[in-house]
């Protein structure tokens, strides 16, 4: 059944909380009746909002954050049995800090549209529970918390601040502790020192130096928390450090502190909490009172929280305070509450790892599991039971554990499965005893190697699992399932059908946030996962996963499958609600096996060619160095930017130099290119030398080391969910960044070759982004040119500069080409002028002429920027939302950068969507034509294949046909093909 676009609390009944249940016991926190609990209400709101999927109450008002906040509040009261509590909120975004530093928190995004109406309702929730609900105009919640904490301590009362906000850690001292509601742990001086490297009383000084990008606290550029802690420990406090900054030995650090002392002082004023603000309610009135049960239940009914109402009424009835459905009158003020509504949530039993979880329902939303159960499967009977459960459920989350991170060579160590939230298993198949010496494989021998722990043999486990993993009636869900697909494929298992929580999240938020499991679990489930480092260690002490003890391996691996299943149930619902199913199911998901096969195939690299190129590059670099030394006033290290700066600007007295904060002259490529344009020969020579040095180190030397000894091929890894536009990105090694605009760069591709009897076929889209500009901006002249097959750059030059096509010169065409491609990236007059070697004014005039000739393009660009500012994202033709960070920035430079991204993202993103769609269709088309070509690489708009020589022309025709028909546009897509024994000649 298809999930509706919105779910109401009436149908959803999600009694989900946004905190884990392992809040410390009252005894662990404080049982004193005078103990004061100060709840960071603003922090709770956002955690509650992100912990639950969208929900509406009967009148259509969104209430997911309200429900999460209500459950958190009830649980907190039930667990702590607190007598003195206040819930404290921020009044407004602007406060006294903005008066002396206007940019404070200026980079924070506006609250989501569906959260804004919930702020007032959440305050109603606090009132319904008869708790003090406090805020103070002109101050932050943290300032009120600091003030109440000071007042309570002056009376000798212990204080617990319920928050995980690091800014509140400065309050920690004897009698004042934090309680992290997410992790259920207390934070005292030792925990603060562990996080900041200094005791709580020095936290403000460390924060002043390190700054905070989230709150836009500047700090001292280039100094992080670790360095800040070292400096404060050494000098005692911030002011002493700044006064003695000239004594610091490290030149860079000294210069940073001297130049940014005032920023550090401002930062300290920003991060230091004001503990002397006027309190809106006296301290002695911060009491928990018996709520008016009529009022509370009526309020819950308005919200549609039926299951919460049932729990409250059941608790009141059990306590004898609810007779025939009638709640009692409220208790007098100051009366200590009994086991009333505060315990309505829970006499339930929770295991420590329990977290909010959606469960499969028609509306896609449901409550969390009451307990997590993770089983270690060590015999075939137990495995068969899990397989049967998976068949009955119809959906199973699957995750693999391996002894390495490279899927083409990693050994399979274990498999985890989950079929319902909170229940998962781990099946070890190739673990060895941790005491086994490295290099040994377990089993008793003459040297006393210990036997492996009890587990199912790999072959037996896979034989049982293969029918399930290939069963078309059972959906297999993974997080980054491409990795697991490759591992199983190496063992002869074609896992299908599949879903990928990482890719679903990517479709829902391209460019919005990361899509790793840890981040998604915290964002959507409010759950902090077990980290890989916690079970394998770090650095030299790290062990491979096959040596992890089985109990730890079970908890880590089973949690991965469990969390994957939970995420799937939340995110798949969001996919429907946001109408993004088609993009996911036709563009992203089909690509998983296609890219997995590409990575597994790899591309053949001729080591001898690389070795020869490395030798040639090294020889040419030596020759260049000799030429550079002749042009310099003295010998120096060409590879040293510092020495180069001294040569150019101290000794040669060349103009245009500028020093950085470290005091060294800047010699980056921009500086050298500027000098080279002025005819400074040494600058051009150094640029050429640097290019060769980079080619040698990054490609000819490094690629030789990355050839797989088994296959003789390089196996790059394609990240499916890494870019802000939907493009694939290549790593280990990055084969998408091989430079092709220079002769030396193009030579690198000669090392990529076809095996005997085959050729490399390169097929790429011709000017796809310009075609998309014409399509998306609706420019008639550009559309006609593409339809008529006219040289687009010559046509543009003719239109903009008024030169007939038969009188076109290469120089005029070059200028038009620079503008055509520059427009896609929102190029400025300065940037275009630099490309063309003309003044910014002249370049700006060219751009104005361009827009006058093609006014539709300027309209499109302005409309796109306005849309991005309003919604926070732009869309591709296939419906992908590309989120634009910083589009509402107040700083002009950062905002302008975001606007350029907004212009480019729909174009680049549409191109990415189109080639992805083509890739998914090419393999079936080749199979239907009975062709044996193998897709090896995707480099943006280009696809590379290895093809039997006798089939290359037919293959090229099939691939071109698929690529040109991948999108129904108003302008034609054109794919060009070439083939040769190596990549350089094929493209």
Automatic annotation (TrEMBL):
| 5'-3' exonuclease domain mapped to chain residues | 32-289
Region: Disordered, residue numbers: 1-29, 326-367
CDD domains, alphabetically? Answer: DNA_pol_A_pol_I_C (cd08637), DNA_polA_I_Ecoli_like_exo (cd06139), H3TH_53EXO (cd09898), PIN_53EXO (cd09859)
- Record InterPro entries: 3'-5'_exonuclease_dom, 5-3_exonucl_a-hlix_arch_N, 5-3_exonuclease, 5-3_exonuclease_C_sf, DNA-dir_DNA_pol_A_CS, DNA-dir_DNA_pol_A_palm_dom, DNA/RNA_pol_sf, DNA_polI_H3TH
Q: Which GO terms describe its molecular function?
A: 3'-5' exonuclease activity; 5'-3' exonuclease activity; DNA binding; DNA-directed DNA polymerase activity
- One Pfam family per UniProt: 5_3_exonuc_N
Q: What is its EC number?
A: 2.7.7.7
Q: Where is the DNA-directed DNA polymerase family A palm domain?
A: 745-951
Role of this protein: In addition to polymerase activity, this DNA polymerase exhibits 3'-5' and 5'-3' exonuclease activity.
Q: Identify the PANTHER family for this entry.
A: DNA POLYMERASE I, DNA POLYMERASE NU
What's the protein here called?
DNA polymerase I
* Source species of the chain: Rhodospirillum centenum (strain ATCC 51521 / SW)
């Amino acid at each position: 059944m298809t999930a509706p676009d919105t779910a109401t609390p009436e149908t959803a009944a999600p009694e989900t909380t946004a905190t884990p249940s392992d809040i410390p016991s009252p005894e662990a926190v404080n049982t004193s009746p005078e103990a004061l609990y100060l709840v960071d209400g603003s922090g709770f709101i956002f955690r509650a909002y992100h912990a639950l999927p969208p929900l509406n109450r009967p009148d259509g008002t969104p209430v997911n954050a309200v429900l999460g906040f209500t459950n958190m509040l009830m649980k907190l009261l039930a667990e702590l049995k607190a007598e003195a509590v206040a819930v404290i909120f921020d009044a407004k975004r602007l406060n006294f800090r903005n008066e002396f530093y206007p940019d404070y928190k200026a980079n924070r995004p506006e609250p989501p549209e569906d959260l804004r109406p919930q702020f007032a309702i959440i305050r109603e929730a606090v009132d319904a529970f008869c708790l003090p609900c406090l805020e103070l105009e002109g101050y932050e919640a943290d300032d009120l918390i600091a003030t109440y904490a000071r007042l309570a301590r002056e009376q000798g009362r212990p204080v617990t601040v319920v928050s995980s906000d690091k800014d509140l850690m400065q309050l920690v001292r004897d009698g004042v502790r934090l309680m992290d509601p997410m992790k259920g742990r207390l934070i005292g001086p030792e925990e603060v020192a562990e996080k900041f490297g200094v005791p709580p009383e020095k936290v403000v000084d460390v924060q002043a130096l390190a700054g905070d990008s989230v709150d836009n606290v500047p700090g001292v550029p280039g100094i992080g928390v670790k360095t800040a802690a070292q400096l404060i420990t050494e000098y005692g406090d911030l002011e002493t450090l700044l006064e003695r900054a000239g004594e610091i030995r490290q030149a860079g650090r000294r210069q940073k502190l001297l130049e940014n002392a005032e920023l550090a002082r401002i930062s300290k004023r920003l991060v230091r909490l004001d503990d002397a603000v006027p309190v809106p309610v006296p301290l002695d009135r911060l009491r928990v009172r018996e709520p008016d049960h009529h009022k509370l239940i009526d309020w819950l009914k308005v919200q549609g929280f039926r299951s919460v109402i049932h729990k409250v009424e059941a608790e009141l009835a059990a306590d004898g305070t609810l007779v025939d459905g009638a709640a009692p009158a409220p208790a007098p003020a100051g009366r200590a509450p009994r086991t009333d509504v505060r315990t309505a949530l829970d006499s339930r039993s929770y295991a420590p790892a329990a977290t909010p979880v959606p469960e499969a329902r028609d509306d896609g939303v449901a409550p969390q599991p009451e307990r997590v159960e993770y089983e270690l499967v060590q015999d075939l009977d137990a495995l068969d039971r899990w397989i049967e459960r998976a068949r009955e459920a119809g959906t199973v989350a699957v995750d693999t554990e391996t002894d390495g991170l490279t899927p083409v060579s990693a050994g399979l160590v274990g498999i985890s499965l989950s079929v319902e939230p909170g229940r998962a298993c781990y099946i070890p198949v190739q673990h060895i005893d941790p005491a086994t010496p490295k290099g040994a494989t377990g089993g008793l021998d003459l040297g006393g190697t210990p036997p492996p722990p009890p587990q199912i043999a790999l072959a037996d486990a896979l034989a049982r699992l293969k029918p399930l993993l290939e069963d078309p009636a059972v959906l297999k869900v993974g997080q980054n399932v491409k990795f697991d697909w490759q591992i199983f494929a190496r063992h002869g298992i074609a896992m299908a059908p599949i879903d990928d929580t990482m890719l679903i999240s990517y479709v829902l938020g391209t460019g919005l946030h990361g899509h790793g499991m840890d981040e998604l679990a915290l964002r959507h489930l409010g759950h902090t996962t077990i980290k890989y480092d916690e079970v394998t260690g770090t650095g030299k002490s790290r062990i491979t996963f096959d040596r992890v003890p089985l109990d730890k391996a079970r908890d880590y691996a089973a949690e991965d499958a469990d969390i994957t299943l939970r995420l799937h149930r939340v995110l798949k619902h969001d996919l429907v609600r946001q109408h993004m199913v088609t993009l996911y199911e036709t563009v992203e998901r089909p690509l998983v096996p296609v890219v997995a096969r590409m990575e597994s195939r790899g591309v053949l690299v001729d080591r001898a060619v690389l070795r020869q190129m490395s030798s040639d590059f090294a020889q040419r670099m030596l020759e260049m160095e000799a030429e550079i030394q002749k042009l310099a006033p003295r010998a120096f290290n060409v590879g040293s930017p510092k020495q180069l700066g001294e040569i150019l600007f101290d000794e040669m007295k060349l103009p245009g130099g500028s020093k950085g904060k470290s005091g060294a002259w800047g010699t980056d490529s921009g500086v050298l290119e500027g000098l080279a344009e002025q005819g400074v020969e040494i600058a051009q020579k150094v640029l050429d030398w640097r290019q060769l040095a980079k080619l040698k180190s990054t490609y000819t030397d490094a690629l030789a080391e990355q050839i797989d000894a088994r296959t003789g091929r390089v196996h790059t890894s394609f990240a499916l969910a890494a870019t802000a536009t939907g493009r694939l990105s290549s790593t280990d090694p990055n084969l998408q960044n091989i430079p092709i605009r220079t002769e030396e760069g193009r030579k690198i591709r000669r090392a990529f070759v076809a095996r005997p009897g085959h050729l490399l076929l390169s097929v790429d889209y011709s000017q796809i982004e310009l075609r998309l500009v014409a399509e998306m901006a609706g420019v008639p002249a550009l559309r006609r040119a593409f339809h008529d097959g006219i040289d687009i750059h010559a046509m543009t030059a003719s239109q903009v500069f008024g030169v007939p096509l038969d009188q076109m010169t290469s120089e005029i065409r070059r200028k038009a080409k620079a503008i055509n491609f520059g427009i896609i990236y929102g190029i400025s007059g300065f940037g275009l002028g630099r490309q063309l070697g003309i003044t910014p004014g002249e370049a700006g005039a060219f751009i104005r002429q361009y827009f006058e000739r093609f006014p539709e393009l300027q309209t499109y660009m302005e409309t796109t920027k306005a849309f991005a500012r309003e919604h926070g994202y732009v869309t591709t033709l296939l419906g992908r939302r590309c989120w634009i960070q910083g589009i509402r920035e107040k700083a002009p430079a950062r905002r302008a950068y975001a606007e350029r991204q907004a212009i480019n993202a729909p174009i680049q993103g549409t191109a990415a969507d189109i080639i992805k769609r083509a890739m998914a269709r090419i393999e079936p088309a080749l199979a239907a034509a009975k062709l044996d070509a193998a897709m090896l690489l995707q480099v943006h708009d280009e696809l590379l294949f290895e093809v039997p020589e006798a089939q290359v022309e037919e293959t090229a025709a099939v691939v071109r046909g698929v690529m040109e028909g991948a999108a129904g546009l108003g302008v034609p897509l054109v794919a060009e093909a070439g083939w040769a024994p190596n990549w350089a000649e094929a493209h």
